[in-house]
Amino acid sequence: MESHELGYFTEENSAEVVAGRNANAKDARVKQVMEIVTRHLHAAIKEIEPTQEEWMEGIQFLTKTGHKCDDWRQEFILLSDVLGVSMLVDAINSRRPKGASENTVLGPFHVGDAPEYEMGTDICLDQKGEPMVVRGRITDIDGKPVEGAKIDVWQANDEGFYDVQQKGIQPDFNLRGVFHTGADGTYWFRAVRPKHYSIPDDGPVGALLYALGRHPYRPAHLHFIVSKDGYDEVTTHIFDPEDPYIHSDSVFGVKESLIAEFKPVDQPEKVQEMGYEDKYWDVEFDFVLAPK
Ligand code: BEZ
Ligand code: FE
């Protein structure tokens, strides 16, 4: 018998000894996952060769991460976000044919019961910020308009805060809403130009970012969930390419296909036609749904 089969632990055979102990696992998937995690974790420890003090620091980091979690704050998801793991899991689970809209991270600020609006409604309820019109088309992969698609949109305000982060300061449901497309598949609504913001950085994940010389900012974006029965649901953002953090999103959410153009419109007749007093921003972005 080889030493790992006897259960004797050495530095060399450590991963095999541990994985071998799971031979009678009840769930084959759990067994497979733990075999892979054990193999990679042991390889990492062998490469790092931590001191006992360093290992304790790692344990304390995870302990603080757990202690920071409550019903509202999920520090482990934030850790997964800044390590790029959330985006990787999302990419694996949303592989789509070429031409279909791409996914990105959901983030923690979506609410399930946002109000439903008619097309053209202003989702900014406090009139703060630079006016913006967002418009486009929802089509299938062959370019045919998708009727009855649900567009669930939410965004931060012009200071980089979501309504749920500023209860009592912003009106409830500020800058969020649900729209449904008609027969032509088009959508449009009014909002305000969003601003970049920091992910929560007052916990262990923020401390880790600063220790790594990283900033906690996300470039300005609007979140969308676009869905319709029979199609793969798209959870995504559109991004402002002029944002200073567009190439260094702290959670790696930016994809080239999700970059929109924020065009300033200041021709008096266009401004007047849209009912604004001064200039506004025009953002056109189409979504393409892949069959399920
Ligand atoms: C967001 O875009 O809302 C977000 C995503 C990941 C972490 C924090 C916020
Ligand atoms: Fe966001």
How many domains, in number, for the residues?
A: 2
From the alpha carbons, calculate the radius of gyration and give it in angstroms.
24 Å
The first-to-last residue Cα distance is: 50 Å
Mass-distribution shape: elongated
Q: Uncertain spans, ≥5 residues at pLDDT below 50?
A: none
CATH uppermost class of the largest domain: Mainly Beta
SSE order, as H and E? Answer: HHHHHHEEEEEHEEEEHEE
CATH level-3 fold name of the largest domain: Protocatechuate 3,4-Dioxygenase, subunit A
The CATH architecture of the largest domain would be: Sandwich
Q: Percent range for helical residues?
A: 25-40%
CATH superfamily of the largest domain: Aromatic compound dioxygenase
Number of separate strands: 11
Query: What ligands can be seen in this structure?
Result: benzoic acid, fe (iii) ion
Strand composition percent: 15-25%
Major sheet attributes = 5 strands, mixed
Assign the structural class, choosing from mainly alpha, mainly beta, alpha/beta, alpha+beta, or little secondary structure.
Answer: alpha+beta
Figure out the total of helices: 8
Whole-number mean pLDDT: 96
Overview features:
single chain, 292 residues, alpha+beta, Protocatechuate 3,4-Dioxygenase, subunit A, 2 domains, 5-stranded mixed β-sheet, 4-stranded antiparallel β-sheet, 11 strands, 20% strand, binds benzoic acid, binds fe (iii) ion
